[in-house]
């Protein structure tokens, strides 16, 4: 891979008039009776750039969004609190909210034709409900999340899933795309440390041996890329996550 492929490029400017996450944006959403389109992204995110170039730069999509939504863009690295609350499974996140911040629906990367349909569906639902859209997913505030004691059986159940999904040949879990899943590796090491069960040490060893000699390991700069699009770790997705590499 040449150096130009490794560089982090600024996000392509879309045709949408994005606004910041602030009180003014939510005030406008209420006064203009519009749902909010929340885009959570990052400068290092490949599919965030693709969403801009493939979808948000299409004139009719941008015009429809500006006319019928309040478009808010948030950088996940600058506002991890918003990402924690609204992330829909990755970056980019495309979430539709009420002016109260409740979730109507959403997803991740949405190609143009699908985006046109999603926008029409959300707006139609909004108009039918006269702006009082009941959220399909109600995100609890941190204060309302019940707090209790964790049972040891929960850890055993998680460890069972770790063992059941382990790829005996290439390491890691499942098929493809394949992520490092550093939390699962750490849990397996803890299980080995406290129990001496070498099967969990094998999970970590096979994973590191295979991922470490594959394209997912960055031999030039060190560290592991975010994931591999292939089961054998040979085709990396060229992003790095500090939460994986700083452990």
Residue-averaged pLDDT = 85
Helix content: 40-55%
| The CATH superfamily title of the largest domain | Glutaredoxin
Quick one: CATH class of the largest domain? Answer: Alpha Beta
Unreliable parts: 1-12, 133-145
Find the count of extended strands (DSSP E, 2+ residues).
6
Shape: elongated
- Give, in order, the helices and strands: HHEHHEHEEHHHHEEH
Distance between the termini: 26 Å
What is the strand content?
5-15%
CATH architecture of the largest domain: 3-Layer(aba) Sandwich
Number of helices: 10
CATH topology of the largest domain: Glutaredoxin
Task: Offer a quick outline of the entry.
This protein is of the alpha+beta class. 42% of the residues lie in helices and 11% in strands.
Topology summary:
Blueprint: H1 3-6, H2 23-31, E1 36-41, H3 46-56, H4 59-68, E2 70-75, H5 80-86, E3 93-97, E4 103-107, H6 112-128, H7 152-164, H8 182-195, H9 198-212, E5 227-228, E6 236-237, H10 242-245
Parallel strand pairs: 1-2
Antiparallel strand pairs: 1-3, 3-4, 5-6
Helix pairs in contact: 4-6, 8-9
Protein model, in words:
By secondary structure, this protein is α+β, with helices and mostly antiparallel strands. It folds into 2 domains: 3-142, Glutaredoxin; 152-245, no CATH class. Helix content is 42%, strand content 11%. The protein has 10 helices and 6 strands, in the order H-H-E-H-H-E-H-E-E-H-H-H-H-E-E-H. It has helices at 3-6, 23-31, 46-56, 59-68, 80-86, 112-128, 152-164, 182-195, 198-212, 242-245, and strands at residues 36-41, 70-75, 93-97, 103-107, 227-228, 236-237. The strands form 2 sheets. The chain has a 4-stranded mixed sheet, sandwiched between helices. Strands 5-6 form a two-stranded antiparallel ribbon. It is elongated.
């Amino acid at each position: 891979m040449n150096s130009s492929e490794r560089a982090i490029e600024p996000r392509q400017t879309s045709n949408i008039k994005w606004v910041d996450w602030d009180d003014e944006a939510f005030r406008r959403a209420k006064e203009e009776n519009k749902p909010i389109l929340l885009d959570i992204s990052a400068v290092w995110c490949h599919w965030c750039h693709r969403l801009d170039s493939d979808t948000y730069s299409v004139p009719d999509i941008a015009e429809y969004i500006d006319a019928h939504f309040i478009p808010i863009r948030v950088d996940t690295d600058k506002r991890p609190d918003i990402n924690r609350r609204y992330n829909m499974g990755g970056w980019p996140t495309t979430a539709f909210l009420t002016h109260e911040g409740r979730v109507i629906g959403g997803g991740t990367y949405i190609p143009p034709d699908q985006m046109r349909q999603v926008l029409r569906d959300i707006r139609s639902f909004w108009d039918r409900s006269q702006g009082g859209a009941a959220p399909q997913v109600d995100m609890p505030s941190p204060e309302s999340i019940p707090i209790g004691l964790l049972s040891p059986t929960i850890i055993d159940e998680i460890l069972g899933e770790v063992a059941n999904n382990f790829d005996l040949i290439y390491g890691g879990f499942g098929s493809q795309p394949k992520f490092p899943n550093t939390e699962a590796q750490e849990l397996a090491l803890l299980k080995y440390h406290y129990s001496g069960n070498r099967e969990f040490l094998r999970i970590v060893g096979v994973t590191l041996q295979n991922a470490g000699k594959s394209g997912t390991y960055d031999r030039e700069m060190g560290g592991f890329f975010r994931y591999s699009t292939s089961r054998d770790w040979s085709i990396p997705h060229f992003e790095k996550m500090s939460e994986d590499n700083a452990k």
